[in-house]
Design brief:
about 600 residues; two-stranded antiparallel sheet; 24 helices
């Protein structure tokens, strides 16, 4: 009994892992473990030697945990349904289809162009939807048949689609970053700023991998044939249009700078973008054909999602809106974009609301279960056990980061990112804070690592999403009429392995170069470079006596003589009496 009582924390944690591994629902595993070990802990408290601090009245704290600022009244978590709704509406509006078709035509003449287009569109969808399932399913339905039609290697095509969809985990407005910020007690805006550069660098490494594969295995990713480039040529026309937008933006900036100061650059860029967008629409509708068809399509398709990204992330980064307010604006913007394309209907809104409710309820129940679990776990000093376990790792701060990332990497084989965020992160954060690790940097590291939970064979959710839309049996291609072989589950799994390795490399880069994340703090001032200068007083020396060998300025009339010590015997001179007022005459107000 004494052994069990004094080792309640590791037994409780092992029991939770056991329940999760046998497939019991996460929310109920957390809550059931918390309640079960609460009862056991109260009974074994006399045998614990003071290591168990549980009593029946402590259960009264659960309602406050549920309805307090950590769950039901948490404004930060309100951003999750907003961003989820925005992403699903955009996915239903056909934005992904338009983007993939247009960017695929733009990169088509390049070897591996479709793969570049998938990664580019994956990053754009990540910055607008923030939902992995929507990105992977949309790109799997649209891009995978086209890539198979033109001879792409099945493993490469599957891996590119799955990996690009998971960029929604690290590129703002990611849902996992919102949850991590909440669990770490940090600002969502700071977490978004810190994750932006690592997300863009990871996208660039994906593209670098495609470039290397196109050089060493050119047959695995051929360029689009000429007959498939339906938009024709027109890259020079697109560059000329972009140059015109830059010229208009600069002219607007120079005009607005005297009156708008620091905001003139943003306003000028906005005017330039609106100008080129309106010109492209006029050119297309009136068939003036000043621009090429490719330039028209790229401008018309790209600018609305980029404007939505600025509406959401720009307002958050500039401090105009909170993440919750930015999510609300993004949801309204998504509805507006769907309406502009004529794809907004009551059915689309109902589907988006139903999906948003399911995901939000899933997150809420896990969070409630986590609060029950943490109440008992903290009562048996589990947080102290975890802190001692992690801070005693060899290597100090770097050893702690390496050990924690290995732990999260292994657990990601069995748990998804929400479960990791609600179960593991609250246990790791105190130890990281005690070691002096910046929690925003720590959160971004965990965010990059949790991406692998979507691509780990055999339980990666992105692989499941892609498996659900990839062809399981041979089929006839609707354009060429040729029979296309199916995509096997093994090909999907093997295609994800190189991208899992890339994400591990990205974790190492984030540890080695923390400034990729730490830039969110702005310019850091070195205290050693600060120089304080106290102005000299010419009439007094440092001790308040007249300067030696110098002359003092003539004293003002009535000023006290500070050159002599004070005398406490003499009375101060009496002030002259004020002249008496003549009350025999009426007052004069002149």
């Amino acid at each position: 009994m004494e052994f069990i009582a004094q080792n309640m924390a590791p037994i409780m944690f092992a029991s939770l892992i056991f329940f999760l591994l046998i497939g019991y629902p996460v929310a109920f595993s957390l809550a059931a473990n918390g309640l079960m070990f609460f009862f056991i802990g109260v009974l074994l408290s006399p045998y614990s030697g003071g290591s168990i601090n549980l009593a029946w009245p402590l259960l009264h704290a659960l309602p406050d945990n549920f309805y307090g600022s950590r769950v039901m009244s948490n404004d930060t978590l309100l951003a999750i349904p907003f961003f989820t709704f925005m992403g699903i509406v955009l996915e239903r509006s056909g934005m992904a289809e338009d983007l993939l078709d247009t960017i695929g035509q733009l990169f088509g003449p390049v070897r591996g162009g479709l793969a570049y287009a998938v990664i580019f569109v994956g990053a754009l969808l990540a910055a607008t939807t923030g939902v992995v399932a929507a990105s992977v399913i949309a790109m799997g339905l649209i891009s995978l048949p086209i890539m198979l039609r033109y001879g792409y290697d099945r493993r490469l095509a599957s891996g590119v689609i799955a990996a690009s969809g998971t960029l929604a985990q690290i590129i703002p407005p990611s849902l996992v970053l919102i949850v991590l910020a909440d669990q770490l007690g940090r600002s969502v805006g700071d977490m978004y700023k810190g994750a932006l550069i690592p997300g863009l660098i990871l996208t660039g490494i994906y593209m670098l991998y495609i470039l290397l594969m196109s050089i060493f295995r050119p047959k695995s990713m051929p360029a689009l044939p000429l007959e498939a480039r339906t938009l024709g040529h027109g890259v020079l026309s697109l560059l000329a249009a972009l140059l015109a937008a830059v010229v208009v933006s600069y002219a607007a900036y120079r005009y607005l700078a005297p009156n708008h100061g620091g905001n003139a650059d943003i306003l000028g860029a906005t005017i330039g973008v609106i100008f080129i967008y309106v010109m492209a629409i006029i050119d297309q509708r009136l068939k003036i054909n000043v621009m090429s068809r490719l330039a028209q399509q790229v401008i018309i398709v790209l600018i609305p999602p980029l404007a939505l990204i600025f509406l959401v992330l720009g307002t958050i980064f500039l401090g105009i809106a909170t993440p919750t307010e930015g999510g609300a604006m993004g949801a309204v913007g998504a509805l507006a974009m769907a309406a502009m394309k004529g794809r907004l209907s009551l059915d689309v809104v109902k589907q988006a609301l139903a999906s948003t409710t399911r995901l939000s309820s899933f997150v809420l129940f896990i969070l409630i279960g986590a609060r029950v679990f943490s109440l008992t776990f903290y009562g048996v000093n589990g947080h102290i056990w975890v802190e001692h376990l992690l801070t005693s790792l060899p290597g100090g701060e770097v050893g702690f980061l390496i050990g924690v990332n290995i732990l999260v990497f292994v657990l990601a084989f069995f748990l998804d990112f929400f479960e990791l965020a609600f179960i593991i992160v609250p246990l790791l954060a105190p130890a990281a804070d005690k070691l002096g690790i910046d929690l925003i940097w720590f959160g971004v590291l965990l965010g990059v690592n949790m991406q692998t939970s979507f691509m780990h064979p055999p339980f990666g959710f992105a692989l499941f999403y892609l498996r659900s839309v990839a062809a399981r049996v041979p089929y006839l291609d609707r354009l060429t009429g040729k029979q296309i072989a199916p995509v096997t589950t093994g090909q999907i799994y093997w295609g994800a392995v190189p991208f899992v390795c890339i994400q591990v490399i990205m974790i190492g880069l984030t540890i080695a170069f923390p400034q990729m994340v730490m830039h969110y703090k702005g310019t850091v001032v070195d205290p050693a470079t600060i120089n304080f200068q106290v102005p000299e007083m010419p009439s007094l020396s440092p001790l308040g006596t007249p300067p030696v060998g110098g002359s003092t300025a003539p004293a003002a009339p009535g000023a006290q003589d500070l050159s002599q010590p004070p005398s406490f015997d003499e009375k101060p001179p009496a002030k002259p009496a004020a002249p008496a007022t003549d009350l025999s005459q009426p007052p004069s107000f002149k």
